[in-house]
Sequence to fold (168 residues):
Amino acid sequence: MAQKMTVDEIIRKTVMAQAIAGERQVKDVFKATEKRLYAYPVIKLKIEDDRERIEEIEQHGAPGKSRSVVKYQRSGVRLTPEEISDALIQDITAQIAECEQEIETIDKALDIIAGDDYAEIIKYKYFDGKSDEEISELIPCAERTVRYNKSRLVKRLSVFLYGVAGIQ
Fold:
């Protein structure tokens, strides 16, 4: 026979479940912030590459039968090469705008920590791909100091990027 739970037991279990979920969410936000920081330099390269693609399309037209062109061709409808080029340019321009928005958002978040004595850790770790040991030599400080301040700074960035979900 199953034992009935009291209201207090139900409330306690609910609060515990929410606390565990909240911890998980904060960890997820921390990891999401790190992913965005690691992606930052790659996104900048993508913007440059996409701008070059637009120039190529403007100068030489759309490529022959690539997947990027086929998605604009519908059965029974023939698009002109100019229409295909315009559609490709619009698509790439939208991707550039999305990437630029991400760069702008991260730049604003980085402005929040710009005055911090250890702000360079973020650049070294996420943008330059340096190890904690290499960073400790560059700053100079102990590796433990690098790890502590990296974590502290990523948490601050998380709050800017995700709001209250980034608060522990």
Q: What stands out?
A: The two ends are 40 Å apart (CA to CA). The chain has a mean pLDDT of 85. The first helix runs from residue 7 to 60. Residues 33 and 158 are 6 Å apart (CA to CA).
